[in-house]
């Protein structure tokens, strides 16, 4: 047990713990070398010269990527790859097809590739698309079925009828509330004079959904998830889904929603931000305000006219459009955002918060049913 404990501490502390007297061999030595190449900084804590010397050599980096995939689980590999991009400045090496074939695809890697999209050589582009397509397919397999079920069920429940055909179609909560005046104290029961039920979903469009996504560099993961969710929602006939991305310009990617990979490669991460201009464009897309849901996904750092942005949002809510602001749509934790703009939107009655991809289907269902999103958010935070 003492030898095993010493071995573990040696791996945790790195080469500076050689004085422990614990020598590493075989797989342990190769694991230690892979960690040292990324995290050893000769005691400075900064990304300086490293003992394993990855440098800018693509073959060495490719071998290192293969090593970490051999010795660590995929979740750890993704963290180490992300750290390598930041600490070793390896982003430019992703322009090599051989490098792309060696990496473990994940959302962060897709964000990096999208940021490099405009400078990516043709010989790398197809490999990059294959990497992005794999990540998108994985996300769709995890999120699509749940999203369709949650949103489809909400659309069914939102279509009310006063002549439900089956007991299963009766909305008992609304029925009881509507018949409280018929309460019989002696029998301790409510005698319903009218029933309220769930209508059956129609094939016609019931809701308009506009996703408006900030494509500034800090929103990379949110852009990836938004593209996937946009494609899933667009596949539902009862929804009319639009996807708009923006920086200082506004791009409508709705025609590309049949293929989320085309959507993602239609984005251009980085640049400034003009939220007001994007909101103005999206406002023009809404034809049925009382049946519309506008979701702005942004860190709210406004480079345009703040007062006009807030006025437009107020106009949308006054017209009956349900407006939601997501500060992030990702698993990355608490986002950086403009607190003043978030507070101003909240004061307008607009729910403003960060949301994980797992919670997004339930959020959509609650919004479609016009539930109190403040209460939904409280339950969501309690679960988190």
UniProtKB/TrEMBL annotation:
Alphabetized PANTHER family for the sequence: OUTER MEMBRANE LOLAB LIPOPROTEIN INSERTION APPARATUS (PTHR30634), OUTER-MEMBRANE LIPOPROTEIN LOLB (PTHR30634:SF16)
Name this polypeptide is given: VWA domain-containing protein
InterPro entries: LolB, Uncharacterised_CoxE, vWFA_dom_sf
Originating organism: Sinosporangium siamense
Top-level taxonomic group: Bacteria
């Amino acid at each position: 047990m003492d030898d095993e404990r010493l071995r573990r501490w040696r791996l945790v502390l790195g080469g500076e713990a050689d004085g422990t007297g614990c020598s590493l061999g075989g797989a342990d030595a190769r694991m230690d070398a892979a960690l040292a190449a990324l995290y050893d900084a000769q005691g400075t804590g900064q990304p300086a010269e490293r003992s394993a010397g990855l440098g800018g050599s693509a073959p060495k980096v490719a071998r290192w990527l293969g090593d970490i995939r051999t010795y660590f689980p995929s979740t750890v590999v993704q963290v180490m790859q992300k750290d390598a991009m930041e600490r070793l400045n390896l982003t430019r090496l992703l322009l090599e097809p051989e490098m792309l074939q060696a990496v473990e695809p994940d959302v962060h890697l897709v964000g990096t590739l999208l940021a490099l999209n405009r400078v990516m050589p043709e010989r790398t582009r197809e490999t990059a698309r294959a990497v992005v397509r794999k990540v998108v397919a994985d996300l769709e397999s995890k999120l699509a079925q749940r999203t369709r079920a949650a949103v489809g069920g909400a659309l069914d429940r939102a279509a009310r009828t006063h002549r439900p055909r089956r007991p299963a179609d009766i909305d008992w909560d609304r029925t009881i509330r509507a018949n409280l005046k018929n309460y019989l104290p002696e029998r301790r029961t409510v005698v319903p004079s009218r029933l309220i039920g769930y209508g059956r979903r129609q094939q016609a469009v019931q809701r308009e959904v506009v996703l408006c996504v900030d494509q500034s560099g800090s929103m990379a993961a949110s852009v990836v998830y938004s593209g996937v969710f946009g494609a899933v929602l667009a596949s539902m006939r009862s929804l009319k889904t639009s996807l708009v991305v923006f920086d200082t310009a506004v791009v409508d990617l709705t025609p590309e929603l049949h293929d989320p990979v085309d959507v993602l490669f239609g984005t251009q991460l980085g640049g400034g931000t003009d939220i007001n201009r994007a909101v103005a464009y999206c406002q023009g897309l809404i034809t049925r305000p009382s049946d519309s849901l506008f979701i702005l996904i942004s860190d709210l750092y406004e480079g345009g006219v703040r007062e006009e942005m807030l006025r437009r949002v107020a106009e949308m809510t006054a017209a009956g459009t349900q407006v939601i602001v997501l500060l992030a749509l990702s698993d990355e934790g608490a986002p950086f955002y403009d607190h003043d703009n978030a507070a101003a939107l909240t004061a307008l009655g607009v729910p403003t918060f960060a949301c994980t991809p797992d919670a997004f289907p339930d959020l959509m269902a609650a919004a479609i049913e016009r539930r109190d999103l403040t209460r939904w958010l409280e339950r969501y935070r309690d679960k988190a």
